[in-house]
Amino acid sequence: MESLNIPNLPRSRTDLFLSFSWLGLQGFGGVLAVVQRELVDRKQWMSLAEFAKEWALAQTLPGPNVVNLSVMFGGKHFGPSGAFAALSGLLFFPGLLMLAIVFTFQAFADVPLVASALHGMGVAAAGMVMAAGWRFMPTLRQHPIGFPLALGFAALSFVLAALAHWPLAHVIALVGSVSCGLTWWRLVPKDAS
Amino acid sequence: MTWQLWLELHLHFCMLSLLAVGGALAIVPEMHRYLVNDLQLMSETAFIQSVTLSQIAPGPNILLVAVMGWNIGLQSAGGFEAGAAAIGFGLFMALGLLTAAVLPSSLLSYFMVKWLQVHQHARSVRAFRAGMVPLVMGLMVSAGWVLQTASNPSMDWRLLLICGLSMVLVLKTRLHLLWLMLGGAVLGALLGL
What we know:
The complex is a heterodimer of chains A (193) and B (193). Chain A is mainly α. Chain A is 78% helix and 0% strand. Chain A has a domain at 1-110. Chain A has nine helices and no strands. In chain A, α3 (48-60) crosses α4 (65-107). In chain B, α8 (157-172) runs antiparallel to α9 (177-191). Chain B has a domain at 3-117.
């Protein structure tokens, strides 16, 4: 059935660059919804099922998932230069806009009122970031190694990274390897059944 | 800045690019440890600015690395007072560190996507994907914590309250993130925090 509606294709590298620029400029916080709306609904470059699959791949690999998705998608259609076009589109205009905001802000940074506002914004942003982390709670509840152990690993990485100031490489080497190893071991019964 | 330090910074961000499972926010605690505590290339204020302003601007969160590069470059070349040379070096560092943070993970995505499509249901890939979740959660909460303590070193209860309120609002309502940031800024400025 799906073959009946053939998805559109990006026409050129310029098309990729501009489309991903537009996408990047709309993405505040929750990028997932924007990417889906642009690539699936508006451009119809992929079906919803394809998108879900690509997004899962992009999330598995290290690096920001939108960035990974742009590289995979651009690369699929136009090879290395397509990947570069999509990636640079995603970062170029948002990057310029960001520097303009920083530039403006820093011109007034010495005003005491601005410094106070920055502290207020800093803690508000901190709350937002913590909430983004907290959203993984339901995933922990269904974790193959069980909720208490999964929560324990989350707490341990918090203690090591935030309180003990361990280098990230060490935290990943310790907590990541033990957690992935245990998960790997626990996944056996599911495979067998 | 010596060329050895320049090289070390870029290599470190290349490594972080490959460790950034869970995206840009997951490496925020590490960037604070490395740039503010260890190398002292950035003030707490510049760190808060980099993370906070990147939340206000659209685009992928990884752009906060560009803002950090900008701050490091500008400061090490003498700040705004030093004129065009310092601004130029700031932009050069912004582009350099962003490239270092994005390129390795993008190359990995580009070359791994085919392999991953074939093996995405393999036990090892599933174990990696699920096993890293507790770590990513712990690191994101750490990022919020680090940003909170940087913005609020004296643990002022009013700032803690704004942080908690922002977290609850993100989790319980669909309020746009920009309103939260604006709210934090206004409260911070009004209370002179």
